Amino acid sequence: MSQQVIRIATRKSPLAMWQAEHIQARLEALHPELTVELVPMSTQGDKILDTPLAKIGGKGLFVKELELAMSEGRADIAVHSMKDVPMVLPKGFALPVICERHAPTDAFVSNKYASFDDLPQGAILGTSSLRRELQARANRPDLDVRSLRGNIQTRMGKMDAGEYDAILLATSGLQRMELDERIRHEMTPEMSLPAVGQGALGIETREGDAEIIKLLEPLKHEDTWNTVRAERAMNCHLEGGCQVPIGGYAVLVDNGENIHLRALVGEPDGTVLLRAEKTGPVSDPEALGVAVAEMLIEQGAKEILDKVYNRT
Ligand SMILES: NCc1[nH]cc(CCC(=O)O)c1CC(=O)O
Question: Where is each Porphobilinogen deaminase C-terminal domain found (predicted)?
C-alpha cells in the first residue's frame, strides 16, 4: 500500500507553523494524491522562557517532543530550522533532506538606529544567542548586551516596548514572518558569522522510513546539503551539540568544485574570539568541517567550550 497521508509534527510558534505549512504546501504540490496534515505541539524549549537556552539543555529541547510523536506514530516527519537541530540525532531518526537555503545572515533591528555601527556607547542590545552576543561584544565592548528569549514576535514586542535599543535576529526568520521591513541592516558574515545551518530547513524522519523518504527526495537541495554538512561536521567535531558560542558558514566556490568554510568560537563576554577558515573539495564536506574544527582546537577552542559548560 502506498503512502496516502504524511503527518508533520511541529512546534506551535508562528515561525515553526510557517515552516511546517511551507513544507506541507510543497509536498502537496509535488504529490497531488497525498494528504499532508500538521500535528502542532508545545515543547519544553517553548515553555521555559526565563532561562538562557544554554543552561536548560540547548537545542535538543525543541526537537525531543517532536521525535517522541514520530516514534509513537502520532506523526511521520518533523520540519526544523537546521540551526535548531542537534549535531547528533537520537538512534532511530534520520535527516534525509535539507532544503535550499536563502538568507543565512543575522539582521539588525531597531527603532532608533540605522545599523550596528550607529549604536551609541552603552546602548542596550538584545540577543538570544551566545554566538551573536560574543561577536557583538568583541566588536563593541562598550555595548550593554542582554539576553532576549521568546519567539520572534515576543522579541520584537520587547524591543518596541523600549526594553532594548536594538536586537539581533535571523534574517530568514524575519522574512518568513513577513517582518523583513523591520530590518534596518543585514549583518555581514564578517560582523556576525551565522549559526551552523542558519536559514536552511531540514526534514527529520524515522530511520529507514523508505517510502516517506522517497516522497521527500525532491525537496533536497544538493548545494545546501553539502555546505551545511561541512558546517555541522565542524560543530560536531568541536562539541556534541547544544547551544554553544560557535559560528559556522560555508559557501560553494570555484564553480561549485570546492567549499569555503569559516568558523569561530569564543568567550560569550567577547574577550576571546578564535577564527578559522579553509577551502576543501565539495566531495568531502565532513573532512573540511573536521579540519576547520582542528584549527580552532589548536587555538584553544576546547578550553573555551569546557568553560561555557562549567565542566572544568
Ligand atoms: N532559535 C530560534 C530560531 N530558530 C530558527 C530561527 C530563524 C530561522 C533560521 O535560522 O532558519 C530562529 C529565530 C532567530 O534566531 O532569530
Answer: 226-297
Residue 191 in domain: no
Q: What share of the chain is helix, strand, coil (3-state, %, to 5)?
A: 40, 25, 35
Q: Which of 84, 106, 165, 209 is catalytic?
A: 84
Domain match, 27 and 176 both = no
Q: What pLDDT, on the 0 to 100 scale, is given for residue 59? A: 58
306 alpha carbon – ligand 1 mean position (Å)? 25
Q: Note whether 212 and 292 are same-domain residues.
A: no
Looking at the fold, whether 24 and 60 belong to one and the same domain comes out as: yes
* CA distance between the termini of the chain: 55
- Same-domain pairing of 12 and 88: yes
Report ipTM (2 d.p.). 0.92
106 in catalytic set: no
Is 123 in the same domain as 262?
no
- pTM here is 0.93
pLDDT tens digit sequence for 106-145: 999 999 999 999 999 999 999 989 999 999 999 999 999 9
